[in-house]
Amino acid sequence: MLAGQTMTSITETLLTLDELSEYLKVSKSTLYKLVQAGRVPGAKIGKHWRFRKATIDQWIDGNQQDSTKLNKK
User: Fold this and answer.
1) Rounded CA gap, 63 and 29, in Å?
2) Which of 39, 48, 56, 68 pairs as cysteine with 34 (C-beta 3.0–4.6 A)?
3) Taking the model in full, what pTM does it have?
4) How far apart, in whole angstroms, are the C-alpha atoms of residue 56 and residue 18?
5) Beta partners for 43?
6) Helix count (H) and strand count (E) of the chain?
């Protein structure tokens, strides 16, 4: 554990595949395919994937499309 962190604060920042699926509101199978293809930032620990919520939030922010650009032709 890092200095100044509690076990609760460490585990709250990490999401499982199931938790991330709920957070992003996508099916587990779709999310797993995206993770396997390297399109979603995460780390495989043994057989299990883990995701930092802060990194996922940054990833979402970086992948947002400007709706004004989408509507212009």
Assistant:
1) 20
2) 39
3) 0.72
4) 14
5) 50
6) 5, 3
